Amino acid sequence: MVPVLQKDNIYTYADYATWGDDVRCELIDGVVYMMAPGASQSHQSASGELFRQFANFLFGKPCKVFHPPFDVCLNADGDDDKTVVQPDLFVVCDRSKLDGKRCNGAPDLVIEILSPSSASRDTLLKFNKYMQAGVREYWIVDTEDKIVRVCLLRDGKYEFTDFIEPDTIQVSILEGCQIELKRVFTD
User: What DSSP designation does 105 have?
Assistant: First the structure.
């Protein structure tokens, strides 16, 4: 059942959890952000290839890669029960953060693939939320310009490096993991 959302209301995870799987949205500081019903071909292609490369590398290792729909409650141990996101991909190495239904706390790595409806949210609002929550590595993937901005958390702030096709990215948090962009940006 689709809830009737009030424009000026502030919602919590408890509210969000009652809305059902057919409501695709995120909560950031209690504000509801509806998610687009479908992704572009380039978005889907990049997401699938990134997932494949990460999953192949992580096979048999303690870290795991996830994709939506799977909730991430960024500050589950703190006072913030008003932020729940669904990144395009994320890696969790501390399995105690997983309860079978969601990730409770900051993932180790988050990847957002830009789309017209979410680009400003991914590059500004979520960028700051991920940094504050302690996400160690945050990737912003632009399939149109074939650029990946890799943001590494150092002393509480993100430092970033841009990679373009056909670069290979050395994943900072996963020793030995390399992601080939020439495969990510092929349709």
Answer: S
Q: CA-to-CA distance for 58 and 118, rounded, in angstroms?
A: 28
Contact 85, 72 (CB under 8 A): yes
Indicate yes or no: pTM above 0.85. yes
Q: Which fold has domain 37-68+87-184?
A: tt1808, chain A (3.90.1570)
Query: How far is residue 130's CA from residue 184's CA, in Å, rounded to a whole number?
Result: 23
Q: What span, in angstroms and rounded, lies between the C-alpha atoms of 133 and 130?
A: 5
Beta bridge mates, 149: 140, 162
* Domain range annotation of the chain: 37-68+87-184
Cβ atoms 91, 173 nearer than 8 A: yes
Q: Could you report the per-residue pLDDT of 35-73, keeping only the tens digit for each?
A: 877 789 999 999 999 999 999 999 999 999 999 999 999
Phi, psi of 68, deg, nearest 5: -70, 160
